[in-house]
C-alpha cells in the first residue's frame, strides 16, 4: 500500500508520506545533471549562449566527482605528437570498435580544450609524452569560477531520481534534495546528463563512492540507447585497503618499481607486458596479470606487492609527479622500508549513452556528455583522454541544448500529470518499502560483479551472476526503505547498480571473444567476428540487447 501522489498533500503523520510531496518547482532553460568536467563545461557553454542554466548534482558541487580526483593527464596533440597519432592511439586502445567520428573530434579539438583550460587559469606541465594539469581539484575550481561568473546556479546535494517525460520529450527532472529531505520538480527545455561513470559497481574501485552511473538508468528509462556496457576499465595500481580503495599509485611507479608474485616471478616479464608505463598504456593486460596472480593465491594477503625499495635517486627524479609524491608515499606507506600492497581497481566505464557528434541522444530534449556516454573509447580507454572528451563533448552538448531551449522557449509548461507520473515511477520501484538493508544489497551486487563480471569472465559464471541479479531485483529491491535522505540515495544507487550489473553481464555474454578490457577465459582471443558494438534499449519495460555494426565504421570520421 502506498499513498497516491498529491502535490497539495500536506500530510504530517509520517515522514514516509510527506516525502512523496513535491516541495517546490524550479524552471530553467537548460538543466545540467552533474558538476564534473562534462557538466560544468556544458553549463558554461549554455550560459555563454545566454541561457538560464541550472546544475543539479548529487555531490557537493565539484567535490565528490571523478573529475575532482583525476590525476591530471591530458592527452593532446603537440609538436612531437600529431592529431593523427592521437586519433590512431585512441583507436588502437579501443581495439577499433570505437565510434571513429567521436575519436576524430577528440583528437582535433583537444588542443582547443587545452588552450581554453589554460585561459581559465589551469596550469599544465609536460611529463613524458603527455601534458598534465595539477590535479582535478584545480580544474574543477577553474571551471566553477567561470560558471559562477556567467551566472550558472547550482543545487548541491540534489539527486535526480527520475526524468520528466512529456510524451517522447524530456522536460526536466524530479530531484531529491538531501539537505531538505524533499522532492523538487526541475522543469527545463533541455536536459543534459553529465552524471559520470559507474566505477562504484565493483568491490574495489577508485571512483567516488557515489559514482553509481545513475545517468545510465535515467537515460535508458527515457528511451535513450546505451552501447559497450561490457567494457569496464580497471586501473592496475590501486592501493589495496580492506575498505573500498580510493588511492592510486602513478603509472610510472609500476615500471620504476618491481612487482613480483610469491614465487619471485616478475609480473611484467612473466606476462610479457612491455608497454611503458604499463599502467597507462596497457591497463587491460596489466590488470589481468595482477588479478590472475592474486586469484591463484600468488599474492600476499589478497594483494600483490609493488616494491620501490630498489628505485635509485635518478629513477625518482625521472618523473616530477613521482618525485612530488615521494614524501607522501614515505609517510603513508613507509615505501623506503616496505613494499606497497596493490590491487586492480575499477576505474572507468567505457560504455554509456549513445550520442551523436553534438551530444544529442535521439530523445527530444535529452543530451549527454562525458563518462555518462559510450563509444568513444571502444573496448578500452588510453589514459589522459577522459577529461578532454568530457570538456569537448560537454561544450558541444551545451551548445546544442541551448539552441533547442531557445527554439522551444515559447512552449507550454508540462502538465501536473507529467510530474505526478515521474513521482509514481520512482515510488513504484520501492512499493513495498519494508526495511531491507540497502548496504547489504549493494555489497552483494558489488561482490557478484567483482567475482563474475570483473577482470576475467566466463560464460557460466556470467549466467550465474544474472540469476543473482534477477533475485535481488525481484525480491529485494522493491523492499528498500526510502524514508530518510540517506535511504533515498542508497535506494536510487541500488536501482542504478543493479541495472548496470545486468547490462554489463548481458553485454559480456553477447561478446564471445576477448577485446580490450573485456576478457573471457572461455573465448580468450580477439576475433574478426567481434567487430561489432553491443547496444541495449528498454522496450515495453524489458531490456533488449543487440549486436549492431560498429556505430561509426571506417571512413565515417572523414564525413
Ligand atoms: C582516480 C581517478 C583518476 C583519473 N585520472 C584521470 C586523468 O589523469 N586524466 C583523464 O583524462 N581522466 C582521468 N580519470 C577519468 C576522469 O576523471 C573521468 O572520466 C571524468 O572526470 C568524468 O567526468 P564527468 O564530468 O563525465 O563525470 P564526473 O566528474 O564523475 O561527475 C559526475 C557528476 O554527476 C553527478 N551525478 C551522478 N548521478 C547523479 C544524480 N542521480 N543526480 C544528480 N547528480 C548526479 C555527480 O554527483 C557528479 O557531480 C580519472 C578517474 C579517476 C577515478
Q: What is the strand content?
A: 15-25%
Annotated CATH homologous superfamily of the largest domain:
FAD/NAD(P)-binding domain
Separation, N- and C-terminal Cα atoms: 56 Å
- Report the C-alpha radius of gyration, rounded: 23 Å
Mean pLDDT: 92
Largest sheet: 7 strands, mixed
Principal-axes geometry comes out as: globular
Number of strands: 17
Ranges where pLDDT stays below 50 over 5 or more residues in a row are 1-18
Instruction: Classify the secondary structure makeup into a structural class.
Output: alpha+beta
Spell out which ligands are present: flavin-adenine dinucleotide
Percent range of helical residues = 25-40%
The fold-level CATH name of the largest domain is: FAD/NAD(P)-binding domain
CATH architecture of the largest domain: 3-Layer(bba) Sandwich
> What oligomeric state is this?
single chain
So how many helices?
A: 17
Q: What are the main properties of this structure?
A:
binds flavin-adenine dinucleotide; globular; alpha+beta; 17 strands; FAD/NAD(P)-binding domain; 17 helices; four-stranded antiparallel beta sheet; disordered N terminus; 3 domains; Methane Monooxygenase Hydroxylase, Chain G, domain 1; seven-stranded mixed beta sheet; 559 residues; Flavocytochrome C3, Chain A, domain 1
Amino acid at each position: 500500500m502506498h499513498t497516491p501522489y498529491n502535490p497539495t498533500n500536506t500530510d504530517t503523520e509520517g515522514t514516509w508520506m510527506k516525502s512523496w510531496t513535491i516541495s517546490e518547482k524550479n524552471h530553467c532553460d537548460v538543466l545540467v545533471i552533474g558538476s564534473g568536467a562534462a557538466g560544468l563545461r556544458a553549463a558554461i557553454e549554455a550560459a555563454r549562449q545566454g541561457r538560464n542554466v541550472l546544475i543539479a548534482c548529487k555531490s557537493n558541487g565539484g567535490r565528490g566527482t571523478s573529475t575532482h580526483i583525476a590525476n591530471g593527464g591530458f592527452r593532446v596533440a603537440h609538436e612531437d605528437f600529431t592529431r593523427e597519432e592521437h586519433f590512431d592511439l585512441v583507436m588502437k586502445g579501443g581495439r577499433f570498435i570505437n565510434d571513429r567520428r567521436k575519436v576524430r573530434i577528440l583528437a582535433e579539438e583537444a588542443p582547443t580544450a587545452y588552450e581554453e583550460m589554460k585561459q581559465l587559469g589551469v596550469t599544465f606541465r609536460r611529463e613524458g609524452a603527455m601534458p598534465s594539469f595539477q590535479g582535478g581539484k584545480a580544474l574543477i575550481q577553474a571551471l566553477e569560477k567561470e560558471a559562477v561568473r556567467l551566472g550558472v546556479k547550482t543545487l548541491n546535494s540534489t539527486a535526480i531520481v527520475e526524468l520528466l517525460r512529456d510524451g517522447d520529450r524530456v522536460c526536466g527532472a524530479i530531484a531529491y534534495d538531501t539537505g531538505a529531505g524533499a522532492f523538487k520538480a526541475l522543469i527545463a527545455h533541455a536536459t543534459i546528463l553529465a552524471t559520470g561513470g559507474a566505477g562504484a559497481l565493483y568491490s574495489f574501485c577508485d571512483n567516488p563512492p557515489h559514482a553509481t552511473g545513475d545517468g545510465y538508468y535515467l537515460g535508458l528509462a527515457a528511451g535513450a540507447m546505451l552501447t559497450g556496457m561490457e567494457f569496464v576499465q580497471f586501473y592496475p595500481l590501486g592501493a589495496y585497503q580492506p575498505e573500498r580503495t580510493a588511492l592510486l599509485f602513478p603509472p610510472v611507479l609500476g615500471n620504476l618499481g618491481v612487482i613480483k608474485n610469491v614465487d619471485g616471478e616478475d609480473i611484467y616479464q612473466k606476462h610479457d607486458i612491455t608497454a611503458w608505463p604499463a599502467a597507462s598504456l596497457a591497463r587491460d593486460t596489466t590488470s589481468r596479470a595482477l588479478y590472475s596472480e592474486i586469484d591463484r593465491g600468488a599474492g600476499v594477503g589478497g594483494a600483490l606487492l609493488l616494491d620501490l625499495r630498489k628505485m635509485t635517486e635518478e629513477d625518482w627524479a625521472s618523473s616530477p609527479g613521482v618525485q612530488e609524491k615521494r614524501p607522501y608515499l614515505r609517510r603513508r606507506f613507509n615505501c623506503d622500508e616496505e613494499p606497497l600492497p596493490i590491487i586492480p581497481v575499477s576505474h572507468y566505464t567505457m560504455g554509456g549513452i549513445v550520442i551523436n557528434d553534438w551530444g544529442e541522444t535521439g530523445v527530444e530534449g535529452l543530451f549527454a556528455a562525458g563518462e555518462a556516454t559510450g563509444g568513444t573509447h571502444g573496448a578500452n580507454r588510453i589514459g589522459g583522454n577522459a577529461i578532454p572528451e568530457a570538456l569537448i563533448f560537454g561544450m558541444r552538448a551545451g551548445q546544442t541544448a541551448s539552441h533547442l531551449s531557445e527554439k522551444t522557449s515559447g512552449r507550454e509548461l508540462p502538465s501536473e500529470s507529467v510530474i505526478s507520473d515521474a513521482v509514481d515511477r520512482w515510488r513504484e520501484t520501492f512499493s513495498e518499502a519494508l526495511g531491507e538493508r540497502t548496504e547489504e544489497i549493494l555489497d552483494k551486487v558489488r561482490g557478484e560483479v567483482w567475482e563474475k563480471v570483473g577482470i576475467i569472465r566466463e560464460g557460466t559464471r556470467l549466467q550465474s551472476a544474472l540469476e543473482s541479479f534477477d533475485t535481488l531485483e525481484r525480491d529485494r529491491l522493491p523492499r528498500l526503505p526510502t524514508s530518510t535522505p540517506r535511504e533515498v540515495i542508497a535506494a536510487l544507487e541500488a536501482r542504478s547498480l543493479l541495472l548496470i550489473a545486468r547490462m554489463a553481464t548481458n553485454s559480456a555474454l553477447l561478446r564471445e571473444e576477448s577485446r580490450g578490457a573485456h576478457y573471457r577465459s572461455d573465448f580468450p582471443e580477439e576475433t574478426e567476428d567481434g567487430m561489432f558494438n553491443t547496444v541495449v534499449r528498454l522496450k515495453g519495460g524489458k531490456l533488449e540487447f543487440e549486436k549492431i555494426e560498429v556505430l561509426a565504421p571506417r571512413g565515417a570520421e572523414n564525413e
